[in-house]
C-alpha cells in the first residue's frame, strides 16, 4: 500500500500493477509503453512466458519491433530476459533476479507475464500467495511487476480476487488507471461501458480492503478528481460497487473536481446516490 | 374541493383576472397548509406577492420560477428530490401551485408544454399535487391549447373537474421521426462506429478543442455518447454519428439499423431512491444533459437526434 505522505502517487508503471485488457491490441499498446519506460528507467525487464509446447509464442519481440524498440538488442545486452513460467515461479527466483540486476549495475527489475501463464505451474492458492509476495517484493526492493489479465476470458479465479492483490499498485487499463491506499482509492481516466465493470469491482475491493470485521463505521475516500468522464454504465457500477460496503455501515466519499463533467453528472443524481455515499 | 389521491394530482387553472386567480388559489393553498402538506408557490415576483399576501401564512413557501431556458427534464428530478426530502420530514404530500415559464423562445415554450404532458408519466406515483396557472390574458394560444391537453383536471370559469380534452402523454408524443436535420453538411461524420470510446474522443475534439471550458458543450458530448453506447449495445450496426456545430447550437444524431425504441417516455422518470444500480440511466442522462432529444424511424434506420443551445 502507498504511504500517506505520497498520496496521491503518480499513476505510472511503478509498483505491483494489473494490466487489464480486453483485446490483444490493448495489451500490446500498454505493454510496449511499459517496456520502454522500464528500459528508460535503467531496469532489467524480465518477461515470463507460457511454457506449454502448443502455446503460441508470446509476441513480445514482434510487439517491441512494431513499437520501434530493439527487443533482440535488449536480449543481447541483458536488459531483457525472457523466462518460462516454470523457471520463474520458484521460491527465491524473483528475489535473486533483482539481486542479480543490482549486481550488474542496473536500477532494478520490472517483471511482467500473463496471469494465465502463472496457472500453468501454480495452483490458485499458490498464485494468490505469490501475488501477495510480489506486492511485498515491489515495496521492499527496486522492483515492479505488471500482471496481464484478460478481461474477456472466463477465469477460474475471479477479477475480484485478482484486484485485491493489485489494489495498492493499481490497474492500468486503456481508459482507467488506479492506485489504492488504506481506506483510499484514486481513479483516473474515463469510465464508460467498456470499463465500468472494472470500476465497480475496484470500488468493491477497495471497500473490502478498508479492514477486517466488516465495513461498519469505516470510511473509503475515492479520489475522482482526475477522472475526465463517467458514463451511465459507470454510475451503475458506482452503485453496485459501493452497495455492500454502504449497506454494512461503511461511508464512501467521492472527491470530484469542482465544475467538472464528473461532478455535474454525479450532482444530477443527488438523492439517488446510495445511502452512505457523498460527493465533495 | 381538492381531489384526494395517493399519487399525482395534476391540474390547471385557466383565469382571466386576479380576482378569479385568488378566488381559486387562496382556499386551495390554505387547504394544503391545513393538511400539513409542504406548500409552495412558484411564479414571477408580482404574482408571488399577490398570492402570498392573500394567503397570509408564514408556512407558505414562495419560490421564483424555473428559468425559461432551464432543461425541463431536470425539473422532474428536482421535484422528486423535493418530495423525498419533505415526506421524509413528515409532510404527507407536496403541493405546488405555479406558473410554467413560457417567457422564452418558441422552442423553449414547446419544451415546457412537453414537460407538462410528461409530468403525468414521470411523477405519476408521487405524493404531489400540482396546480398550474394559465393566465388567458397573457399566454399565447398555442400554450393555452397545450395546457388544455396536458392536465387531467382543469378549473375554468365554467367549472372544476376532470378535463375531457386531456390527452395521455404516450398519445400526445406520437412516434415520429425527429425534427429535420440541419441543412448544412455535418461538421463531424463517422460511419460504422465500432469503438464508441474513440468516437467520443473525436466528438470531444471537434466540439471542445481550442475553446474555453463550456458546461453546455461538455454536457452535449456526454449526452451524445450515452446515445451512442445505447445504439452500440441495443441497436444494430452499422452505427453512424453526425454532429453539426454552429455558434447557436450543437446538434448530434446517432443512427443504427435496429428497430429502435417504442416507448416515447423512456428516460423521463426520475431514478427512485436506492434504484440507481438498475435504472435505465443512458437515456435518463442524455435527456437531462441536452435541451431537446427526439427519436424515431428515418430513411436510414432508427435515429436519435439531440440538440443543445449555446450561449458562448
List the helices and strands and how they pair.
The complex is a heterodimer of chains A (280) and B (312).
Chain A: E1 16-21, H1 24-40, E2 44-49, H2 60-66, H3 71-77, E3 80-84, H4 85-88, H5 93-103, E4 109-114, H6 115-118, H7 124-140, E5 143-150, H8 159-164, E6 170-172, E7 176-181, E8 184-191, H9 196-208, E9 219-223, E10 227-230, H10 232-247, E11 251-255, H11 261-269, E12 277-279
Parallel strand pairs in A: 1-5, 1-6, 2-3, 2-4, 4-5, 8-9, 8-10, 9-11, 11-12
Antiparallel strand pairs in A: 7-8
Helix pairs in contact in A: 9-10
Chain B: E1 9-15, H1 18-34, E2 38-43, H2 45-55, E3 61-64, H3 72-88, E4 94-98, H4 106-122, E5 128-135, H5 141-150, E6 153-156, E7 159-162, H6 169-172, E8 188-190, H7 196-208, H8 215-234, E9 240-245, E10 249-256, H9 281-288, E11 292-298, E12 301-309
Parallel strand pairs in B: 1-5, 1-6, 2-3, 2-4, 4-5
Antiparallel strand pairs in B: 6-7, 8-9, 9-10, 10-12, 11-12
Structure description:
The complex is a heterodimer of chains A (280) and B (312). By secondary structure, chain A is an alpha/beta fold. In chain A, 40% of the residues lie in helices and 23% in strands. Chain A contains eleven helices and twelve strands. In chain A, the strands form two sheets. Chain A has a six-stranded parallel beta sheet with strand order 3-2-4-5-1-6, with helices on both faces. In chain A, strand 11, helix 11 (261-269) and strand 12 form a beta-alpha-beta unit. The longest helix of chain A is centred in the first third of the chain and has 17 residues, at 24-40. Chain A is globular. The model of chain A is unreliable at 1-5 (pLDDT under 50). In chain B, 38% of the residues lie in helices and 23% in strands. In chain B, helix 1 packs across helix 2 (45-55) and helix 4 packs parallel to helix 5 (141-150). In chain B, the strands form two sheets. In chain B, strands 3-2-4-5-1-6-7 form a seven-stranded mixed beta sheet. In chain B, strands 8-9-10-12-11 form a five-stranded antiparallel beta sheet, with helices on one face. By secondary structure, chain B is an alpha/beta fold. The mean pLDDT of chain B is 90. The N and C termini of chain B lie far apart (49 Å). Chain B is elongated, with a radius of gyration of 21 Å. The A-B interface holds A 175, 190, 192-194, 229, 231-233, 235-236, 238-240, 243, 259, 261, 264-265, 268-275 and B 74, 77, 80-81, 84-85, 196-197, 200, 213, 215, 218-219, 222, 225-226, 229, 232-233, 270-279, 281-282, 284-285, 288-289.
Amino acid at each position: 500500500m502507498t504511504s500517506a505522505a505520497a498520496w496521491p502517487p503518480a499513476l505510472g508503471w511503478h509498483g505491483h500493477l494489473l494490466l487489464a485488457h480486453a483485446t490483444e491490441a490493448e495489451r500490446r499498446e500498454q505493454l510496449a509503453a511499459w517496456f520502454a519506460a522500464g528500459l528508460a528507467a535503467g531496469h532489467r525487464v524480465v518477461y515470463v512466458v507460457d511454457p506449454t509446447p502448443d502455446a503460441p509464442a508470446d509476441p513480445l519481440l514482434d510487439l517491441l519491433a512494431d513499437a520501434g524498440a530493439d527487443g533482440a538488442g535488449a536480449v543481447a545486452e541483458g536488459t531483457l530476459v525472457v523466462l518460462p513460467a516454470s523457471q520463474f515461479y520458484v521460491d527465491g527466483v524473483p528475489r535473486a533476479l533483482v539481486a542479480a540486476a543490482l549486481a550488474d549495475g542496473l536500477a532494478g527489475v520490472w517483471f511482467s507475464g500473463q496471469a494465465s501463464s502463472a496457472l500453468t505451474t501454480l495452483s490458485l492458492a499458490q498464485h494468490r500467495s505469490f501475488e501477495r509476495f510480489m506486492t511485498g517484493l515491489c515495496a521492499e526492493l527496486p522492483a515492479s511487476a505488471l500482471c496481464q489479465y484478460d478481461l474477456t476470458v472466463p477465469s477460474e479465479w475471479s477479477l475480484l480476487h485478482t484486484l485485491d492483490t493489485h489494489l495498492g499498485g493499481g490497474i492500468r487499463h486503456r481508459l482507467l488507471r488506479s492506485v489504492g491506499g488504506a481506506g483510499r482509492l484514486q481513479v483516473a481516466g474515463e469510465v464508460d461501458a467498456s470499463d465500468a465493470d472494472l470500476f465497480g469491482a475496484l470500488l468493491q475491493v477497495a471497500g473490502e480492503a478498508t479492514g477486517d470485521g466488516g465495513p461498519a463505521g469505516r470510511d473509503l475516500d475515492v479520489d475522482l478528481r482526475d477522472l475526465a468522464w463517467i458514463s451511465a454504465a459507470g454510475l451503475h457500477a458506482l452503485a453496485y460497487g459501493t452497495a455492500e460496503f454502504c449497506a454494512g455501515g461503511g461511508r464512501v466519499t467521492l472527491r470530484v473536481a469542482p465544475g467538472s463533467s464528473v461532478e455535474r453528472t454525479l450532482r444530477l443524481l443527488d438523492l439517488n446516490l446510495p445511502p452512505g455515499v457523498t460527493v465533495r | 374541493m381538492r381531489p384526494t389521491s395517493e399519487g399525482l394530482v395534476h391540474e390547471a387553472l385557466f383565469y382571466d383576472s386576479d380576482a378569479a386567480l385568488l378566488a381559486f388559489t387562496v382556499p386551495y393553498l390554505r387547504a394544503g397548509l391545513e393538511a400539513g402538506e409542504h406548500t409552495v408557490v412558484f411564479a414571477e415576483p408580482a404574482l408571488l406577492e399577490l398570492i402570498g399576501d392573500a394567503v397570509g401564512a408564514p408556512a407558505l413557501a414562495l419560490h421564483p420560477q424555473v428559468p425559461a431556458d432551464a432543461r425541463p427534464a431536470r425539473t422532474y428530478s428536482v421535484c422528486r428530490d423535493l418530495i423525498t426530502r419533505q415526506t421524509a420530514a413528515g409532510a404527507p404530500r407536496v403541493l405546488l401551485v405555479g406558473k410554467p415559464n413560457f417567457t422564452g423562445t418558441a422552442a423553449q415554450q414547446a419544451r415546457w408544454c412537453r414537460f407538462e404532458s410528461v409530468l403525468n408519466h414521470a411523477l405519476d406515483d408521487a405524493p404531489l399535487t400540482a396546480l398550474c396557472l394559465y393566465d388567458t390574458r397573457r399566454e399565447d394560444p398555442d400554450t393555452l391549447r397545450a395546457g388544455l391537453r396536458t392536465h387531467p383536471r382543469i378549473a375554468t370559469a365554467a367549472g372544476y373537474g376532470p378535463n375531457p380534452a386531456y390527452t395521455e402523454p404516450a398519445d400526445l408524443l406520437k412516434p415520429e421521426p425527429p425534427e429535420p436535420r440541419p441543412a448544412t453538411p455535418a461538421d463531424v461524420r463517422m460511419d460504422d462506429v465500432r469503438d464508441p470510446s474513440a468516437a467520443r474522443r473525436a466528438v470531444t475534439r471537434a466540439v471542445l478543442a481550442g475553446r474555453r471550458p463550456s458546461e453546455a458543450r461538455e454536457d452535449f458530448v456526454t449526452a451524445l455518447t450515452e446515445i451512442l453506447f445505447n445504439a452500440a449495445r441495443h441497436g444494430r450496426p452499422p452505427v453512424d454519428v453526425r454532429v453539426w456545430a454552429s455558434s447557436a447550437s450543437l446538434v448530434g444524431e446517432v443512427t443504427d439499423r435496429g428497430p429502435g425504441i417504442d416507448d416515447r417516455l423512456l428516460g423521463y422518470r426520475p431514478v427512485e431512491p436506492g434504484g440507481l444500480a438498475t435504472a435505465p440511466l443512458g437515456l435518463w442522462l442524455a435527456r437531462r444533459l441536452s435541451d431537446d432529444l427526439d427519436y424515431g424511424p428515418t430513411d436510414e434506420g432508427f435515429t436519435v437526434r439531440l440538440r443543445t443551445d449555446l450561449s458562448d
